[in-house]
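Homework help thread (please don't just give me the answer)

Our assignment gives two proteins as sequence + structure token strings and asks us to describe the second one. The first is just a warm-up. Here they are:
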Amino acid sequence: MIDLHCHILPGIDDGAKTLDESLAMARIAVADGIHTLACTPHIYPGLYMNDGPGIAHARARLQAALDQQGIALKLVVGADVHLVPGLIDGLRSGQVPTLNGSRYFLLEPSHTTPPPRLEASVFNLIVAGYTPIITHPERLTWVESHYPVFQRLIAQGAWMQVTAGALTGVFGQRARYWGERFIGEGHTHLLASDAHSTGRRLPRLTEGLEVARRLVGDREASRLVTERPAAVLANLPPPGFGLPPKDADQATGRPSMIRQWFSMRHPAP
């Protein structure tokens, strides 16, 4: 599996604090079946002053430590980016790194407030040649009132990434509901760990992947952690997106059975 969202680099954001913790996170990831992992520290002016060259240097140092310890994990460069003025210029200059130098990058909206002009900003990024991957929409406090916005962002060309731990209740029942809904209704491109430590938010995908399998079947679930992340790293279009035919209403293409399943299992919070 490939994990495209992980705060494993030591001491540069709110993720791993020390090299030993980074190495322990790497061992957990490998034991879970992850062979490639994107180092994606926050870039947030005024709080986390990371940049492309600094992240690349930190990745190289950690990769050397992994190799020395015999930990079979390949690291690639990325960042968890906030929507701030000058973002396109930062992407073009390399100060804001994309995932493995591709056109794809992680875009983290505010957790508590819908960004003004979000749809217009994402559209401008796409026009500029980039593919924003919106991180953990299921955990945003404003998802209830903006769910159709995320569907429109997908129609524009943005991707959605759900957190594996959200599907197992790590972030509470509300995030679990929305995570299952994003995946079950066919609005998710990637499943990632968004790991920050060896504790509650650790770099594991398998438990969340099992939930995804129950929602959309083996093939689509596998794409969330293998084929699509590989396409990102190779800078290719997404292989297969949307619900499998067996899960969609044959006449309309809408995931009618999934909607019925949700309404029976748990009402919207």
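The one we have to describe:
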Amino acid sequence: MAARRTPTERQRRLGSELHKMRVAAGVSAESVASLLGVDRGKISNMERGLRPISPDRLRSWACHCDRSDEAYIAALTKMAQPDGPGWWERYRGVLPGGLLDIAELEDQAVRLRTGHTVHIPGLLQTVDHARAIFGAAVPPLPKREFELRMVHRMERQRVLTREDPPEYHCVIHEAALRMQFGGATVARAQLEHLIHMSELSHLTVRVLPVSSGTFPGSGQTLVYAEAPVPELDTVQVDCTHGPEFLYGEAQLSKYRDQLDCMEQLALDPEASRRFIHDIARQS
């Protein structure tokens, strides 16, 4: 099978895990290549996410590297052979790959934790609110891409209403609640939608009031996606040039601590609902 030109974030992550596993065990690429019956170049491509690896070869790789954690290996096997193409693949080639990677990350997570300072979380935005956000892009989005981004964002939100949704815990700063993207009417409807969604049993919304003062990561939007095993957790950070995905051990620890701090400073869920309701009445 030919090497990929542009691997997805999932494929890059799988390759990174293969590389990390091999290096930690002190096993050479030549040794793994000999085990799998391929040339060394293919091992390099597998570790960069440019070439697929079968579940059987993945398990041989793990055994050769003395890795016996079945939960971790099973999670990697699922990454190597997912249950068919996800819905986001319909947008491959017509929307930036990073947007598709976000959708896949959300779809595969068992728990999502997010922190937002200026924007309402994408998974909780109304159509009109999202339209106002995309309408403010510089340079302006072409009409077709604008509409595709809208449809894609709304389709992403189904992860919260499917039969087996992930737990979703988000902290939203007061500043984001007071932003009137699209005008007062749109802003009020967005806040009412947020209150409605916060009543779902698997969803927790906490408000971080301005009065809470300084907090770590202020101004940053981040998503912490918990995987079936902690080693495969991922942080996604929004940047002007597109999403960044982080999964170094130190990075994961840093952003867990950051979200912990935000949650400690935030109001409890019931007080948060009342806070959002008060802002909606003022809109």
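TA reply:
I won't write it for you, but here's a hint about the kind of observation we're looking for: The two ends are 57 Å apart (CA to CA).
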